[in-house]
Structures are given as structure tokens and as C-alpha cells.
Amino acid sequence: MEETMKKQVWRRFVEDGALDSARINRRIMESWYFCKSSGVNPFDGKGVQLLSLDALKERQRVNAQLLEVSLPFLNNLHNLFKHTKSILLLIDPEGYVLKVIGGSDALKYAQDINFVEGVKWTEDLVGTNAIGTALRNQEAITVVGAEHYSIASQNWVCSAAPIKDADGTLLGVLDLSSRIGTCDHEHTLGAVVASAYAIEHEWQYRMKEEDEELLEVAQRSEGSVPPFVLCNRKDALLYVHPSLKRLTSSLSKKLIKAELKEMGYTITMKLPVFSEKSGRLIGYQLCLTEKSRGMQVNLSLPDKAPFVFHGVTGVSGRFRSVLRQAEQVAETDIPVHLTGETGTGKELFAKAIHENSSRQKGPFVELNCGAVPASLLESELFGYVPGAFTGAGKTGYKGKLAQADGGTLFLDEIGEISHSMQVALLKVLEDQRVTALGGMKETQLNFRLITATNQDLTAMMQAGMIREDFYYRLYVYPIKLPSLRERKEDIGHFIHWYCDRHHWNVHWSKGMIDAFMSFSWPGNIRQLFNSLDRIRVSYGEELPSIEELRNWIFQQQGCELKSIGRLQVSDTLLTFREEMEKKEIQKALEEANGRVQEAIEKLAMPRSTFYRKLKKYQL
Hints:
Blueprint (H helix, E strand, L loop, with lengths): L1 H15 L9 H13 L14 H10 L1 H18 L4 E6 L5 E6 L1 H9 L10 H4 L3 H8 L3 E4 L11 E9 L5 E10 L8 H34 L6 E5 L4 E4 L16 H6 L2 E10 L6 E10 L26 H14 L5 E4 L6 H10 L8 E5 L5 H9 E2 L12 E2 L1 H4 L4 E5 L6 H13 L1 E3 L6 E3 L3 E6 L3 H6 L5 H7 L2 E4 L10 H11 L8 H8 L6 H16 L6 H12 L1 E3 L5 E3 L6 H16 L4 H8 L3 H10 L3
Parallel strand pairs: 10-17, 10-18, 11-14, 14-17
Antiparallel strand pairs: 1-2, 1-5, 3-4, 4-5, 6-7, 6-9, 8-9, 12-13, 15-16, 19-20
Helix pairs in contact: 4-8, 10-11, 19-20, 21-22
């Protein structure tokens, strides 16, 4: 009888706008008025705004910690109410359904109205409902039958409770929904509220653990220069370096850039800090500089933006030192030369320097000099006008030098270019003027040069492989990137970063990470990620045992552990391209009957590159 009366009240409201406030709950009444003013269709109410599968996975990734904390409680509630044919849902703060758990019958009925994972279930889209009303009011509520504003949900009873952080920030909503007549709904709201409270308690415990881990990071890094502070993910200041005494009064408060400025501090670098346990972002390390008293009159000038690096920073002191070098040179226009072993991330580092420079809005143009045949390198760099040579395109080609105008030119494997090409490029670097092949017009350019090689450029210059004048034009500000062997403490961070990026929800134990740390990784970060690719494809969501993991690395990488703990790399480590290159060199030597100069000419390869390849392939 009560449900029939509600139905009559609802019909009169949607048709005439009249509402008997004595017969309806105040929160429901407020919601109906909200829905009517928002133009919600009371005769529909099916979910209409659904995320694509990729967008849903991304949203689940962003809310991964909330899902991880909440799922045990959702499963407990499901076991408690499974006889009632109910479904349990976890919703993010914007109203998107992240997770649905329930029996097949209830899930089928839910699908009929698009009450599924990825749907946005808010009042303005589907009318009065427990989830949307709890989101808007941030209060627990049960909505029964005809109390739902739209007819699609009027066969349901829904109880929802908000989940909040310690400071009151809304984290999400927990909901239990069932078809009318299948559940004694008078008792469901209490269970939902109790579970939401338990999730909040567990969340706060996790946040406290993160703060404690950040303080451990502070203790390990206290001797670092420049001075720094640590903030958690909510920007609450947790640690202040002893030399920054004036900031101690701000501990536990939200760090505000304007307040730092007033106190005479400038943020020079902002580095993310990831948990060694979970791999998740837990806070930030902010490096500060203090303005002298004499300069405080210039506090109205805009602060320099902190240096941002999109790769894995980890905890390695050596890599942090390299980041500081990059931060110092990024704001200048001087040439930078990056050196380091293959696979250490030179290209990513070059991009970071560009993105933190005054040229960040200009183009970032890259060219691997070792991947372009010597006969084509000149046209690739300088470009050409239409008809400049046989086979030239009808519209000509704008070379990499001109493409980089206003931005940054990154030349990788710079040691691969010939002496004649060094002379041609040297002239451009001196006055930044270029003439396309076959053209007459000289174009003035303005670009910043970053070069890279995995060789010792100084030794190459001393051996005559690199012209001395060309060497001094490039080797202005050298930065050496550490190998993975030199930053082994970051391997766990790389693994967690990889898992997060590929939505690979597996748990890496300390023993597994230690197994990875026991190898020298001659191919560095690239080799590590290649290994993770193969393990992910081969094992999926079930990781191998530690022993299987060790055997896997040996078999897949073609490595054998030596008694001194180093890895001898066999030919099985060569890529397909390297195998082809090795065969081409062997063929050229055979056809030239071992005459080196003739083989070099056949391959159109610089002499220095040829000898390096001979050594690499043990020919």
C-alpha cells in the first residue's frame, strides 16, 4: 500500500509539479526538485553515459588504491547478501561505476538499464537514486521503488554511503542494490554504512603508512644538496630539511607556492616519490633555493617552474645528481652532450631538457645518425629543393635542421657521422644558417642542440674519429647517464612503473625484485622492459616463482651467470636488425677478400663505425 501511495505522489509531481511534502522524505523531495530543474526524463532513467573499455581501465587505474582497499569489504558484503540477489557497486567521486559484484540474475536486470561498470550514475543523468543522491549530499541514504525519480529504477531498492578521507574529501560511494521484494532493505543501509566506515579506516591506515615511508625517505636523503622538503600526495608538508628552519611551522599544513614565495623560497625541482612496497606515487620531493635578503625586493617576479621528468626517478643518488645537472642546463641554450650505455634513456632525458626549457613550446626534432645511411644523412639533415637530385621528391623536403627551428634538435649516435658530414654540420652549428641541397637561399635558424652517443666522444676525438673542432662544438655540457647496474636500487621502481603503465595487476615480492637486482642488465632499462614484456605475455596475471624467474631471465636473455657475478652476453641477445647488420658486414668482407677499405666502401659506412661493428660482432 505504501509503494502504491508513493507511485501516486510521484505521478502527480512529474505530471502537475504538485508535491505533498508530508508523504515524502525531505532528501527525496529535494532530489526530485533537482532532477526536474535539470531536465531529467522521469519516464526513462537508463544509463546513457558509458565509458569505453580503455577509458574504464584508465579510471580504474587512477582509482586502483580505492579498489584495492574496498574489494575485500565488497566481497564480504556480497557473501552476506548473496541470498537476496543483490549487487554491490563501488563508485568514484564523479559518479562512474568502477566495480560491480553480484549474482547472475541481479546483474542481468542491472544490464537491462545499463547499471553496469563504466556508467555514470548521477542524479542529473538518471534521476534520484541512492548513489547520485549520496554523491550530491555526501550522506548515506536508501531510495526505495517509486522514490526513484525515473521509472527505469523504480523496481529497485538501493542503499549507498559515501567513503571519505580523514579530511572529509570524498573518495567514492559504496552501494548495495536489489530488486524490490528480494531483500529486507530495512537492514541494508546499516551494513553499507558499516562497510564504508571500515573502508575509510583502512584507507586512513594506508595513508599513515605512506607518510611513514616518506619520512624514511627523508632520513635516507637528509644529507642531500640542495635542501628539500617532502609532501604527501595531498601536498601536506611532512618533512623539512634542517637548513629550512623557517618552514618548520608549516609542518602538517598544505604547502602553498605563494606562501613559499613570501618566505623567500623558490621550488627548483619537483620529483615524484614512489613507494618501494606498492610502487604507487606517495608524495613529492621539492628542492628549494632561498633568496638572499637583498633580493627579496624582487619577490614579485614569477617563480621558475620546477624541473619535471616523466620517466622513473627512483631513489638513486646518482640519478638525482644527473637530474640536478639537467635542471641547471635546461634554462640555458648551450649544447648538451648525453653519454651513457645503450638503453639508459638518453632520448627521454633529451626530451626532459627540452620540455623544461624556454623552448618547450617549440618542436623537438630527433634523428638517429646511426640509423640513416651515410649517403642519405646530408639530405635528411639539410633537406632539398624539388629536383635537387635524381629521385628527389617533387615538393622537396624540409630537413631536420630547419624542422627544429625555434625548438630543440636531438642527434643520437652522433659519433656515427663521417668527417665530411662533420665539416658540413660544423658550419651550420657556428652560425645556424642552412642551405637546402640544390638550393641557393640561405635560411637563418634558431635551435638548441642536444647530442648523444654510447661511446667515449673524447677517446674518439683523440683517435681521430671525431674532428677536434667538431668535438669542442658538441662537448660543451656533458651529462653521463648511469647504467642500470649503477642504480640497482631503482629496479623495483621501474617494475612498478611498467606494471602501472600496462595495467598489469600482479604483485612483485621482494624476493622477485631481488632476483632482478642480482643481474647486471647489460641492455639496461630497455632490456629490463623487454624482459617484462615477455613475462607479461607468457605468464599473464600469474607470475612465475623466483626460481622460474631466474631461469626465465637466463633462457630469454641468452645470459649465463659467471662466478664473479657478471653476465656474459651471447649472440642470442642480438636484435633482428643487428643480426642482419652482422651478416651484411660478413658478406662485404667476403666479397672484398678481407680488404677492409673495399668492404667499407661497399657498405658506405664510416671507418670508425666499421671498426666498432667488427669489435661488437666479434668479426
